[in-house]
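#struct-help
A.M.: can someone run this one for me? Single chain, 69 residues.
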Amino acid sequence: MAMDKTTIKVLNKLFEHGYRTEKAILNFSLEDIQKIECYAPSEIAALIGLKEAVKGNKVISYLSGGEET
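D.P.: on it. Structure tokens below:
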């Protein structure tokens, strides 16, 4: 399964604004949403999902849409 367009869009925004490491993603705050201009509910959901995936060491599973078994 390929990544959806929203996830790709959010990742590009993060990278463009310097959020390029797991630590940066984990430290991403509500205020940072304004900096990268992610306002759509689907974009915010993608950010939350990515942050949870980083925290749980499941980034590849998150990005591929797969689940750990």
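A.M.: thanks! Residues 2 and 8 are 10 Å apart (CA to CA).
D.P.: also worth noting: Helices lie at 5-16, 22-26, 30-36, 41-55, 59-64.
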